[in-house]
Design brief:
The protein is an alpha/beta fold and 226 residues long. It has a single domain (2-220), classed as P-loop containing nucleotide triphosphate hydrolases (Rossmann fold), CATH 3.40.50.300. The protein is built from 7 helices and 10 strands. Strands 6-7-8-3-9-10 form a 6-stranded mixed beta sheet. β7, α6 (173-189) and β8 form a beta-alpha-beta unit. α3 runs parallel beside α5 (143-155).
């Protein structure tokens, strides 16, 4: 479903800083992987490239056979809205919208009819244990609850690929474990693929495979480079 070949990215300033090189990855529908690595090694940059939020200097990223570099910005935005979901460490919920309104956003952007949208939002809030909090605002929720809302928002439009960037970094251990279990279940139930970027070994252990990002590429933990 996702195929990455020879991906590289550098930042050009007074000094050129090579961030990613030689990245290879194959990810099938239903697979859930974790990527670990030192701070500043390029984990978030890799997610941004996969999402089409940034452009690589070379290499290939294909989502279901579609080469991202061949798309213009409008087409990349459309692909991202329709086929990807995001979970971030900082939640990124809109404070002036209710829980239900925050979760509805991806459906509105994809022009899902109102009746179907309400049905999906109700179902996903039930799945994440927040059916009674649809009218609440983010400021009224705990950190764990806000992250559950973020997961609901990431999967409500049934994306093929979920990208999670340090989603438990602001949570206590109990909330983190609950959120990771929920994320894995929601991805599995929708037969999506997921990439979890994390510093936490316990978080990474919930994945099917663990990769370590180095200056030479992705190293499969316990195996050969991808």
């Amino acid at each position: 479903m996702l195929r990455i070949r020879d991906l590289r990215k550098a930042y050009h300033g007074a000094v050129v800083r090579q961030v990613l090189q030689g990245i290879q990855l194959d990810l099938a529908a239903g697979e859930y992987i974790a990527i670990m690595g030192e701070s500043g090694i390029g984990k978030s940059t890799l997610l941004n490239l996969i999402a089409g939020l940034d452009q690589a200097d070379g290499g290939s990223i294909r989502l279901n056979g579609t080469e991202l570099s061949a798309l213009d910005e409008t087409a990349r935005t459309g692909l991202r809205r329709a086929h990807m979901g995001f979970v971030f460490q900082a939640f990124h919920l809109l404070p002036h919208l209710t829980v239900a309104q925050n979760v509805t956003l991806p459906l509105a952007l994809n022009h899902v009819p109102t009746r179907e949208s309400r049905r999906r939002v109700g179902a996903v809030l039930e799945a994440v244990g927040l059916a009674a909090r649809g009218d609440s605002y983010p400021r009224e929720l705990s950190g764990g609850e806000m992250q559950r809302v973020a997961i609901a928002r990431a999967v409500v439009h049934r994306p093929q690929l979920v990208l999670a960037d340090e989603p438990t970094g602001n949570l206590d251990p109990a909330s983190a474990a609950q959120v990771l279990s929920l994320l894995r279940d929601e991805v599995a139930n929708r037969h999506a693929a997921a990439i979890l970027v994390t510093h936490s070994s316990s978080a990474a252990a919930t994945a099917d495979r663990i990769y370590v990002l180095t200056g030479q590429g992705l190293q499969l933990r316990g195996g050969l480079p991808e």
